[in-house]
């Protein structure tokens, strides 16, 4: 019944003509912006936190990205050959583990992808404090958040599957909140005494400073403690850990036709990054305290 009613609504609006809310001047402006993007005169994106549009000269965007990729502690040059070796190994491990777990052949094949991930940067406009900063063409002045987009990349669908399993573990972490209302409720029920002191802490580049080994160890401990309480979809712990290791090691991406590898930490854009970061926080949250409130990349988490 629900499907029938939904189909009726869809058919109703499919046949309905919609008029644009843009004026002729606005439409012309949109066409001009698209043309500037096509000609690689500008790059149009959103900012890291503010949500505003960022229009930056295309060549300046290239220079900012090149400057970012010079960080040898985080990236090193790679190659298409190395990328293919990594994704083929990942797909081989996935097929082997999935067959052993009894997954359907159609599911196994659907989760394989051979396209490389790509890098793009979000400008931290809140770090540009003066009008001179906004007008500057110095690439070293711009602070950025790197996003390695894994949409339809080699690890995208496999990590989607792993996330189905690992996210079930988050309910066993007192610091994890499922929504903003839960966060507000925790604040209202907190009753610190006069001996408590409020402190605010920030982790610089949280994801890239979470080591893969620490993240894997945290997940392994949670799986061993709660294996019988979650749906493992037929997989064993050692199989999940093997897949997780391969996904984290498949860290090669492409930018401007060249291949690079991220050699440290979790990548922004990695489906598993939020749950792995939260799991890695566990030892810190065991430190005696009156009340913990923790934000992981603007996703509120708390523990009491």
UniProtKB/TrEMBL annotation:
<protein>
    <submittedName>
        <fullName>Reverse transcriptase domain-containing protein</fullName>
    </submittedName>
</protein>
